[in-house]
Amino acid sequence: MFFHIVLERNMQLHPRHFGRNLCRHLVSKLMKDVEGTCNGRHGFVVVITSVDSIGKGLIRDGTGFVTFPVKYQCVVFRPFKGEILEAVVTMVNKMGFFAKVGPVQIFVSNHVSSL
């Protein structure tokens, strides 16, 4: 359900952020861009716990933007089929009910299929 993993991402930073607060701007942009997003391979990124390394920047031709490779640790939420989750029921109808588990909305049908 919840995993603590290491991920990498290339971050682009505008030249106006260059200076002594460069790392702070880069980490702030990383958190804004990544936290709360869904990745099909890893699941929903809940929170970034730490930034392990920020590599050397590469200047993009013609734009002035610099691309930095960033390695960070984060907590992700990835539900699996057959997993039991605690959910909040949001709507009930004659076909079944809808529930919310963190960022995921699920539907549980009244119809039972036999294998």
TrEMBL record:
GO biological process, alphabetically ordered: positive regulation of nuclear-transcribed mRNA poly(A) tail shortening; positive regulation of translational initiation; transcription initiation at RNA polymerase II promoter
Transcription in keyword set: yes
Gene Ontology CC annotation, any one: RNA polymerase II, core complex
GO molecular function: single-stranded DNA binding; single-stranded RNA binding; translation initiation factor binding
RNA polymerase Rpb7-like N-terminal domain ranges (all copies): 8-64
Classification via Gene3D superfamilies: Nucleic acid-binding proteins, RNA polymerase Rpb7-like, N-terminal domain
Location in or out of the cell: Nucleus
Transmembrane segments: none
Entries under InterPro entries matching the protein: NA-bd_OB-fold (IPR012340), RNA_pol_Rpb7-like_N_sf (IPR036898), Rpb7-like (IPR045113), Rpb7-like_N (IPR005576), S1_domain (IPR003029)
Residue ranges of every copy of the S1 motif domain listed in the record: 79-111
SUPFAM superfamilies reported for this sequence: N-terminal, heterodimerisation domain of RBP7 (RpoE), Nucleic acid-binding proteins
Domain of life: Eukaryota
UniProt keywords, alphabetically: DNA-directed RNA polymerase, Nucleus, Transcription
CDD domains xrefs: RNAP_II_Rpb7_N
Family: Belongs to the eukaryotic RPB7/RPC8 RNA polymerase subunit family.
Role played: DNA-dependent RNA polymerase which catalyzes the transcription of DNA into RNA using the four ribonucleoside triphosphates as substrates.
Name this polypeptide is given: DNA-directed RNA polymerase subunit
The species this protein was found in: Acer yangbiense
